[in-house]
Specification:
With 442 residues, the protein is mostly helical. The chain contains 19 helices and 6 strands. β1 and β2 form a beta hairpin. The structure holds arginine (ARG).
Length: 442
Amino acid sequence: MKNFEQFIGSFSFDWRLAKADIEGSVAHVKMLVKTKILTASDGAKIIKGLSSILKDIEKGRQLPKEEDIHYAIEKELIKRIGPVGGKMHTARSRNDQVATDLRIYLRTEILSTIKMISALQSVLADKAGKSVDVIMPGYTHLQPAQPVLGAHYLLAYAWMLQRDKERLEDCLKRVTVLPLGSAALAGTSFKIDRNYTAKLLNFDSITQNSLDAVSDRDFACEYVFDLSLISAHLSKLAEEIIIWSSAEFGFIKIGDIFTSGSSIMPQKRNPDCAEIIRGKSGRVFGDLTALLTIIKALPLAYNRDLQEDKPPVFDAADTVKLCLEVMTDMMNSFSFNGEKTLKSTQKGFIQATEIADYLARKNIPFRTAHATVKNIVNYCIKKEKTLNELSIEEYKTFSNEIEKDIFKFINIENIINAKNSYGGTSKKSVLKQIADIKKCIK
Ligand code: ARG
């Protein structure tokens, strides 16, 4: 077999773990010195060698190709400081090493993703602040349902993203558990101090079972699931942008640079960035499926299948960060066309529920009120009138309980401001939401 080395190797994708690998090795060596498994002078030589490799990597220098990043760094170390470099691998195996590296790497990724989510939330909160007087139809089943504030709509996404952030913060607790010292699968007979290594790496705790420790990739699955949900949320927001920016809706505008023209139809401005974000979610879900399929049916403990965990994890991380960045920029360029959204509230009889509530407050059973309003709406359709355009006499033919004050109740602004329940769409409630979400954005 010609390409065996390449086939079994992971260097082409795990080079990304280089910094994490060195960080883990430095902590491991310090622990070996503290426990007197290595002499202080050997430890110092190794750490100096590792630091010089790290410096070169940071400068963008590539290491010579090896089976994987762990071998590449160890070989380079031995090349630089001599056989003493080989002592670094005492009391560990690549199995606990790679699991540690991935955890160190993901910690950094999670923290930067959380920051990026906050940046998007901040833009949404800012745009919400500018849209507290924008009145638009809210939908269920994509049919006009009840009027809401544009700000309320944007904040819905800010709260979704808040849960995404909390999920990542929670995931971090299981990522920062140290497997190092589990060695190949059974632990080690060297008298190591795993808690000390954990402390050096700023990990919360150490793993409890060496078999589990070297085979566990639950934290990676969890992370990619969290990213999948972020992708789903971004995809939903992208979908709103696509619908709202269509000629039929015309509710919003986004910056021209987020759209592109058609090669044949000169009039077109297509919302490509939003569409690509929507499409990328499929890719991230694919990464999650890949990861779950890789771990399924693996007997304990380490199996080489686990090497295949990295491409989907890295791909999901890169994709979601890119989408967050583009969405944040795109939302920065976002604005509502308040006239258009207000005009749309005149369609679809979105005040109908208010009339039913009006009658219910007059002691008419809600079911009866609902049927009455259905008749009113059918009448409007026949007469091609809106609910505002009916006269009080026309209303009275449906129910004697309806008085002139009905027009106050079906005024769109009044409807919105009456929705003052906690979390509702009244301006007062929305202003509170803006203040509350801002507290969640660090
Ligand atoms: N490159 C390997 C991986 O990513 C490192 C661990 C190799 N362990 C082994 N027993 N062959 O999983």
